[in-house]
Each structure stands twice: as C-alpha cells, then as structure tokens.
UniProtKB/TrEMBL annotation:
The keyword Electron transport does not apply. Residues 46-175 form the DUF5648 domain. This is DUF5648 domain-containing protein. Pfam families: DUF5648. Keywords: Signal. The keyword Signal applies. It comes from Bifidobacterium santillanense. Coiled coil: none annotated. It comes from the Bacteria. Residues 1-33 form the signal peptide.
C-alpha cells in the first residue's frame, strides 16, 4: 500500500466535523404539476424519497425532481402509490423554508392557513381519487421540526408510527392504486463502471471500530461500510445504537487531516453482528453510489478516476479497542473494454498496522469471462476476508492526548517502527491496467 493511499484513507471523527459532514439536503424544489406522461389508464406514479438528515419523506410525480434529490443525498424508496392523472380533487403542496419541510393537503382551508403562517405555496402536486379506492393515511409527529407528517398506503406502517408516538390524523387523500418498493439493483445490472461488494458482519469492543469497502483512484479515496462509535447519538439522536452506514469521500485536493476536501455521510442506522450485503459503485459521471442488500441508500460526487485499487479495511478507534469483522464473498467489477476488464492479481493481505490483522480466510475462484468480473487467472472472485485484533497504539501524540484512528499517521507502528500508517488492516487488489 502506497504512502499516498495510506494517508488518504485516514479519517476524522465524524462528531468533530459534523457541520462539514452534513449534506445540503433541505432542497426546496419549485412548484411542479404531475408529469404529463402517465400510464394508459390515466395514472401517475408517485415517487417516495427520504431525507436521512431531517427525517422528511418527500413525494413527487417528477422523475427529474426525484433524480435531483437523489443526487443531493435523499434515499429513493420506490413508488408510494398511483395517483389519477387528473381529477376534481387536487392535493396542494407547500414548503416551510425555515424548517426545511414540505406539507401536502387536499384541504384548501388548511393550505390557506399555512400560507398565512409563512409557508410557500408550491401549487398542485397531484390529484386525489374521487372514487376513494386507496386511502393515504396521514400521521403527525409532535416532536419533529422537519418530516413531521408521514403519508402511507400501508396500514401497518401507520400503526407502527402511532405506537411510536405519532398522532393518527386520518386519511389525507386517495390514490387509484398501491405502490411498490424501489427495484433491486445487483452488482451485475447497476450500470457502474467499477464496484466492490461483500457480505459484511461487524463486531468489536471499546469506543469505536468499523469495516469498510474502499476504492481509490486519481488521488482520491471513497469508502463505505459499517461503523460503531460510542458517541454518535449525541450529535445524531436518530442513531441511538451508535452504529451507522458511513461514507468517507476524500477528494484529490485533500492533503491533510481536516474537513477541506473531505465528506462524511451517515446514511442510515446499521446492524451490529448481522450479515448485510454492501456495495460501493463508481460511475463514469464521477458519481459514487452506496447499496445495502441491492437497494441504493445514497450517492455523492467524487474526484476519483480509473484505474482503481479496491480494498477491504477494518479499523479500531483507540488503544485497546478491538475489531472482529468479516466480509464474505467479496467480488470486484471493473472496466468497460478488454484493456481494462477485471483485476490483475490476487488479493494482498500484508497491510496490517497497530495490532490489527487482515487475512483471506477463503480463497475465491478464477473468473475467466471476458468482462468486468474477470480475474485474469487469479482465484480472487468471491474471497472471504476477516479483520481482527486489538488496537496497539500506546502513548500520546504531540498534543498530549492518546493516539486515535484520526491521528495515527504520526504515530510509530510498533511492528515496523515506522510512521505514516492507518490504525487499520487493509486487504487490497488492483484493476487491470
């Protein structure tokens, strides 16, 4: 592992850079009418998205607006319901610029009261079904600033929210048909130029630890995985279990620890001690997308470029913390022509620092297909990786504070007696060049 790659995979505690980490998600799109394109039966698909920072659900008939919000970090959850393309019962859309919250109502009096209170009226968002075939249940969270209302055709979702303390506000409007979850996107069909995927299971002890998939290229690094850190809930109360799906996006102009040129994203709560399939994918428009169980949960822009190095990394936060992580069936996809297809060798598991150890516990297979999953003769398709150990980074830094995974690059690794290393173990492989 090169010094540049090692240096750029360092991280800064997300709590210390919360302001820099926050993605600008409070998008206030302009007024939109339902799109003219609709099914032959006169219906319109209503897309449902979720803002992981504010907790707001957003609903739109516009595919352009849907994709704009996805690019800004919203999660696409699929089709919420089918609305009539036209009816005598409009549903009005409003926006509160102070709270960063949208509201939807079929009640003109409620609309007017909100406008008088300072809300912006954004026009007719869609229409309600006058035959009242599919109810949209409305709930209210009295403790929320943004995302205080939820609308769903799912009575089970409604009942779960009511049990959690939301108020049942009856039926907001009606659709003509039900919805469907966002379609699965597999590593084969997600359209990416390059990706790395595996079934991750994170365990450990102490103040913090994480396991991640990593891609680096063009002087930039993006990583995605599961992180536990004991203080997350103080800055992000929506994560009381302190375990999240984390993205670290280190741009090419970031040369030292600090928020400049670096992006940290907590996408959603993650499990500890459970298997979950995770994938990091890169697209030729310089977008990275992040998948859990074949569902995209976030995306962001990068400054990466091919060819890539792919890695599985595990880390611990402080001296004495432990990690016991596995990433099984790790597969790599790369390239769009015979000159760039696949990987060039087996996995390298020799980058172990400060007491942590990454090993290949099961070799993979050779993939001889003429395409992006080619291993070019090496048994590197579908390997199993384990990262274990107790952080051994004794002593204090120049500031008198104990070394951490944010400051380890200035510490002396006890096994090599050298500096410039992450507090982690890394297993990596390179794209064919």
């Amino acid at each position: 592992m090169s010094h540049v790659f090692a240096r750029q995979t360092s991280r800064i505690t997300a709590l210390a850079v919360a302001a820099a980490a926050t993605v600008a998600l409070a998008v206030a799109p302009g007024a939109v009418a339902p799109e003219t394109a609709s099914a032959a039966d006169g219906t319109v698909s209503m897309y449902r998205l979720y803002n992981p920072n504010s907790g707001e659900h957003f609903y739109t008939a516009s595919t352009q607006e849907r994709e704009t919000l996805r690019d800004a970090g919203w999660n696409y959850e699929g089709i919420g319901w089918q609305a009539p393309s036209q009816s005598d019962a409009p549903v009005y859309r409003l926006y509160n610029k102070n709270a960063g919250d949208h509201h939807y109502t079929a009640n003109a009096a409620e609309r007017d009261n909100l406008v008088r209170s300072g809300w912006n009226y954004e026009g007719i968002g869609w229409y309600s079904d006058t035959q009242k075939r599919v109810p949209l249940y409305r709930q209210y969270n009295p403790h929320a600033v943004a995302g205080s209302h939820n609308y769903t055709t799912n009575a089970g979702e409604r009942d779960n929210l009511i049990r959690a303390g939301w108020h049942d506000e009856g039926i907001g409007w009606y659709g003509v048909g039900g919805g469907s979850a966002a379609p699965a996107e597999t590593q084969t069909n997600d359209g990416a130029y390059a990706s790395v995927e595996g079934v991750m299971n994170l365990r450990g002890s102490g103040s913090g630890y994480h396991a991640k998939l990593v891609m680096s290229g063009g002087g930039s690094v993006v990583s995605f995985g599961i992180q536990y850190e004991q203080d997350i809930h103080y800055a992000y109360p929506q994560y009381p279990g302190n375990t999240v799906f984390l993205v670290e996006n280190v741009m090419s102009h970031a040369t030292q620890a600090g928020p400049a040129g670096k992006q940290y994203m907590y996408l959603k709560a993650a499990p500890l001690g459970q298997d979950v399939k995770v994938r990091l994918s890169w697209y030729k428009d310089n977008t990275a997308r992040f998948f859990v169980n074949d569902q995209e949960i976030g995306r962001t822009k990068t400054t990466m470029g091919a060819p890539f190095i792919f890695a599985v990394e595990g880390s611990a936060a402080r001296n004495g913390d432990t990690i016991n992580a596995t990433v099984r069936n790790v597969t790599v996809k790369a390239g769009d022509s015979a000159a760039s297809y696949g990987t060039i060798s087996g996995w390298n598991d020799g980058n172990d620092y400060f007491g942590l150890d990454g090993t290949i516990t099961k070799q993979g297979t050779v993939n001889d297909e003429d395409g992006p999953f080619s291993t070019n003769g090496a048994p590197s398709y579908g390997v199993d990786v384990a990262i274990n150990g107790r952080a051994n980074i004794p002593g204090n830094g120049p500031d008198g504070k104990p070394w951490t995974w944010d400051t380890s690059f200035s510490a002396v690794d006890p096994s090599t007696n050298t500096t410039g290393h992450p507090l982690s173990a890394v297993v990596n492989i390179a794209q064919k060049r």
